[in-house]
Structures are given as structure tokens and as C-alpha cells.
Amino acid sequence: MKAWHALMLSIVVATPAAAQLPNANYDEAKVPAYTLPDPLRFEDGRPVTSPEAWRLRRAEILRLFEEHVYGRSPGAPPAMRFAVVETTSKALSGRATRRQVRVLLDGTESGPAFELLLYLPNAAPHPVPAFLGLNFGGNHGVHSDAGIRLSRAWIRDGPSVVNHRATEAARGSEAGAWPVERILARGYALATVYYGDLEPDHADGWREGVRAKIGPGRSQRFATDDWGAIAAWAWGLRRALDYLSNDPDVDGRRVAVIGHSRLGKTALWAGAQDERFAMVVSNDSGEGGAALARRKFGERTQDITKAFPHWFCARYREYALREEALPVDQHQLLALAAPRPLYVASATEDLWADPRGEFLAAKAAEPVYRLLGRDALGVADLPAPDRPLRGSIGYHLRSGAHALTAYDWEQYLDFADRHLRSVPKSH
Predict the structure, then answer these.
(1) For residues 70 and 34, what is the distance between their CA atoms, to the nearest angstrom?
(2) Which of 142, 258, 359, 373 lies in disulfide reach of 133, CB 3.0 to 4.6 Å?
């Protein structure tokens, strides 16, 4: 604990300036005493003592997150269909097959839809396991490959984006976060969707996204537990998995869902809702993701609901500055991944996301994994930087800032080798 406190004090100045809010707490000595809700105790106080009882408790926790944090989502649209718009086996100098798919949510070309980019390793025997994640800047941003269709959706203005639309110069703008060739060389497919294809990331984005066109929340008068943007993005991940489960080149039983930052929160919620995901990966997801809210360290519920009110259901705002009143905390979200392999990662300079709070949430999910016959982290305290843990729950604290890096991916690929290679193939 003393070593951790010294580390935090030494790097607080490296935290991004935008995260340095005047009242943010970065001092472990100021973390209040707190009691976490027990994932292995029903709301009426009864203990959970068997895997069968956990199934009931799991449904109870899932409902609480729907009602108080992320909101309720609809099921799959009955008329949804998939239109493959391109397949070539000559991508990336012949190392990959590139497939681009339009997921037509109402079954029509003119209705709501999103685009999925899939790279398959040509050298690996098919069907292959896969990583699926949302990207921040359009599918064209994950690689400089000129064959990727340029996104036509709304994109936040920035370099290579003009009037909220991507230009050709945006190709490969996120390549540092998506080491495509390395993922393929390890024998995995990579599937990605631009999150703004599902809903643009601003307060009025729902008007252009799936929340205005699919299920509850079609009008401006949202119920307190209607789905927020994170739930909408997670819903899109589940629809992408619907496609991958039907692609003969992908093993639908071996798909890992991954996300960074707000999309790490999204990956956790998608993995909690949909047990078809074989592995769940959260990279620097912080408040509303893997970090414990009750620690009141770094970003807090008040900060996130004020800056991004559209991310969560309306009821979540009621817990600003009173996180202890929440009927859940984020260790229970992590526990919803059990018994599937779960990886949580943090970064030393990313105090806003509360690295220790992310680790402690993973620790507090351990009893559920053990009840279900799985091992867990296997350590009592936060590991030293760049020393990954790889039980059924994986964790690392990477040296550096808030980012998804090649180092992070190497840990996730090693973790997948350990856990997904042993899953029986579905074809």
C-alpha cells in the first residue's frame, strides 16, 4: 500500500490536464471507508452458495445495472439481415482476407444499419477465434489499407475530419491502437465497428442513432431506465456478434469482446449482457467501467454524468456525489463475466480512471469465479507496473498514459492463447 501511494504521488502531475478537475481526489489517504455490495448475497440477504443460485443472483445484478446505470436494451431486430459488400483474400499483401459487411437492422438497404470490418488470417486454419471491438474514428482508421470503406457517419471534428465527416487523410489514424498484422499473425481475426455508426457520441446523438430507431427511447422523453449511449453501443456489439456467429470463417464460440476507455465500459456491459462472448477485455475503462465507484477517486459519478449525460440511463444521475447509495458497484459488473475469462487493464498515469480501483474491483469479483470453479488473480495487492497476472481474471498495470497500446494487445493475445485455444470449435 505504501509503495502504491508513493507511485500515485509521483505521477499525478502526468495525468492529462483535462482530467485535473479542482475537486478530484488523487490521494489514497482521502479515499473514504466503504462497504461493497456482496455479489454472493441476494438482495433479500440470502447467501449464494451454488452455481445454480448464482444464475439467479446474476439475473438480479443484471437487472439492477439496467435499472440504475446503463438502462434497458431491446433484443435483436427480427428482420435484421447481413449484406456482405466485399470479400477479398488478397488484403494486406495476401496475408489476410478482408470482408466488409452491412448489418441491416430492419432488413432494408434504406433503414438503420452499420458497417462491420473483418480481417481474417489466411495462414490460420478456419474457423478462427476473433477479437471484436468498437473503434473511435471509423473503420478506415484502424489501418491505412485503401480498400476499407471510408465512413460516411458523423465523426467528432479533428485532424483529417472536416464538418464531422472523414477525409481520405484519416486512413490509419487509429492504427497504433489496432495492430492488425500482429493480431492476424497470432491466428486471430479482428472485427471492428465504428461506434458512431450506432450512435454519434454527443447529447443529441440519439436522434441519429439506434435509440431513435430501435426499441425504447424513440422520443425525447426517456424513461429513467431507458438505455443510454453505452447500452446502445453495447447492443451494436451484440448485433455484430450475431453476424460473426454466422460467418463460416469465424468460430462464434471463441469471440472476445474488447474496448478502451468509454468503449471499455461498453465492452464490459456487452459481455455482461451476452454470455456468447467467450472472453471480455476492459482497457482503462475507469468510472462506469471497471473502477469501483465507492472509492471516490479520480473521476466520479458527478463528473461523468455531467460531462456525458447521454452515456447512461437517467436514473444514474441520482447517484452523483452519493455513490454509496448505488445498489451495485463495478466489481459486480466484472463478476457478470464469470466463469468466462476476464481481463482488466490500467495505466500508471491514468489516475482519472483509478487504476487501483480497477484492480480492487477485479479482486472483489474473485469469489464468484471461485464459486464457479475458476482461479482468479492470485495476488493480494496491486502488482508492480508491467507485471501481468493471468488467472481466469487477468490484470496488468501498464507504464504510461491512457491508451490502447501494442503492449496491452500482447497481453490480451497471450491471455486468449491460454483461454480461447482450449474452447471446442463450434464448426
Answers:
(1) 23
(2) 258
Closest CA to 205 of 221, 226, 220: 220
Helix residue spans in 104-179 (DSSP H): none
Strand partners, 114: 103
205-256 pLDDT, tens per residue? 999 999 999 875 554 557 899 999 999 999 999 999 999 999 999 999 999 9
Which of 373, 378, 344, 328 shows the shortest CA–CA distance to 41? Answer: 328
402 is catalytic: yes
The structural domains of the chain, with segments of one domain joined by +, span 31-419
Cell readout for 44 is 433479500
pLDDT tens digits, one per residue of 23-51: 899 999 999 999 999 999 999 999 999 99
Give residues with Cβ within 8 angstroms of 375, minimum separation 6. 369, 391, 392
User: Which one from 73, 151, 261, 285 is the annotated catalytic residue?
Assistant: 261
String of DSSP letters for 274-335 = -TT-SEEEEES--TTTTS-GGG--SS-HHHHHHH-TTSS-GGGGGGTT-GGG-S--HHHHHH
What is the pLDDT averaged over residues 16-22? 49
Let me know if 160 is a catalytic residue: no
Residue with C-alpha cell 459487411? 101
In one-letter notation, the amino acid at residue 254 is R
Phi, psi of 62 (to 5 degrees): -60, -45
Q: What angle do CA 114, 145, 279 make, to 5 degrees?
A: 55
**pTM to 2 decimals?**
0.94
Distance (Å, rounded) from C-alpha 385 to C-alpha 399?
6
CA dihedral 298, 302, 308, 313 (to 10 degrees): 120
38 DSSP 8-state letter: P
Work out the mean pLDDT of the chain and round it to a whole number: 93
Burial of 122-144, coded b for 16+ CB within 10 Å and e otherwise, reads eebebbbbbbbbbbbbbbbbbbe
Q: Which ranges of 348-405 would DSSP assign to H, the alpha helix?
A: 355-371
Q: Which CATH class is domain 31-419?
A: alpha beta
- Count how many residues are written for the chain: 427
Q: pLDDT tens, 311-339?
A: 999 999 999 999 999 999 999 999 999 99
Active-site residue identified among 143, 396, 402, 419: 402
> How confident is the model over 137-187, as pLDDT tens digits?
999 999 999 999 999 999 998 889 999 999 999 999 999 999 999 999 999
Strands 113-121 and 189-194: antiparallel
